[in-house]
Sequence to fold (225 residues):
Amino acid sequence: DGGITQSPKYLFRKEGQNVTLSCEQNLNHDAMYWYRQDPGQGLRLIYYSQIVNDFQKGDIAEGYSVSREKKESFPLTVTSAQKNPTAFYLCASSISGGPSTEAFFGQGTRLTVV
Amino acid sequence: SQQGEEDPQALSIQEGENATMNCSYKTSINNLQWYRQNSGRGLVHLILIRSNEREKHSGRLRVTLDTSKKSSSLLITASRAADTASYFCATDRTTGNQFYFGTGTSLTVIP
Fold:
């Protein structure tokens, strides 16, 4: 089955720890995105990548880091510098870097800081 | 800052009724998309309308776009309980390669 897979579905982190969220796609898409969703709010862009080995900051990149070493993979690290990391994180991909085509989303990772 | 704002924030209707939700945006766009999100899940693409289109249909969905007013509407006809979800509009900008999502409309369809 083609699609985009996020893991894990639920993640608990102690304060001060870094944690990495996985996002893998087998759709052969060039562009990948990470969004954060908080209750009552829309999706806010953290980072996006239009091509392997290249990525750009979104609106709320502080406290997050990404890598794009393979076309299929775009992991997100939530660092200890992120002051309020508890949120629902969504990864998406699209055929090209331009938003003229639809985005395909994973099922999300819910991160809770304990 | 977010590009789109949906209205209303929440909508509750009876099964069989039509549901209309609106999206307003701030800057010029190339296209506008609507997505659906079931609770705790990822978003699913519903429909894309380009800036040179005024209306588009897909099954029970009808989308309109008024670029002069910088607004779009999504109409779901003959709603079903399974339509219960949050609906988001997403826009691009004429410059840049990002999707900008609104805050969403939470739709509840009562059986």
Notes: DSSP finds no helices and eleven strands in chain A. The CA atoms of residues 67 and 74 of chain A lie 6 Å apart. The first strand of chain A starts at residue 4 and ends at 7. The mean pLDDT of chain A is 92.
